[in-house]
Predict the structure.
Amino acid sequence: MDISWYLALSAVLFTIGVLGVLLRRNAIIILMSVELMLNAVNLTLVAFSQALGDVAGQVLVFFAISVAAAEAAIGLAIVIAIFRGKLTVDVTQINLFKY
Amino acid sequence: MIAQFLFFLLAIVAVTAALGMLLSRNPVTSALWLILNLFCIAGLYLTLHAQFIAVIQVLVYAGAIMVLFLFVIMLLNLAALPAFRQVDLRRGVAFVLVMGVLAELAYITAMAAGVLPEPVPPEQAAQTGYAAEIAKELFTRYALPFEMVGVLLLAATIGAVMFAKRRFV
């Protein structure tokens, strides 16, 4: 299987993730779209790691997954903290930096 | 032959699941679509002979992280769901075109600079997927980053607890 197919699939998934961040207003779905983008990049890293015979790409995927876990924990904690005050997760309603 | 069939099957399901995540109204449905997508990507890792990463993907991503997401979605009261914004189609076309031109530009620049790497034969490449190979690299060359990830996860845990206890807005 040629590596370019994996890169094309990764590009499609990354674009869907970007569209999710740009179009959706639910903060949790925006976080999930970020996870989708991270996964697309991980797929690229593994494809290159296999094509080049270099294990460093897969080590980088390991680190990316750890950072994604930390990001999800902090992001969801922020969403919960904002929800407790505002009773909404709509990002257009959250205007903390307005003043 | 079988590998190609598997790739296209997994790729189609992965893209469908990603679109389902993007388009579904209910956040719980959205999270379930994303879990399907993560499983498909784990399968794609297996077609790339990256067994260790595939197992980590299912355990950490589809298991731990998505359970966290589902817990938070079910914890919050999402009765009033925000609707879609109006999508401008011309912007979408412009986005795709600009991305294509940028990718071509990056490729040509890399080719002119002579930094494009050379692929190795598949027999040699298949050796990189085993946990032993990754562990060897992780605990020798990447030992310091590995420790730093441990500290990062500890800091994130403490920070998440602090955020959840605090009341602002």
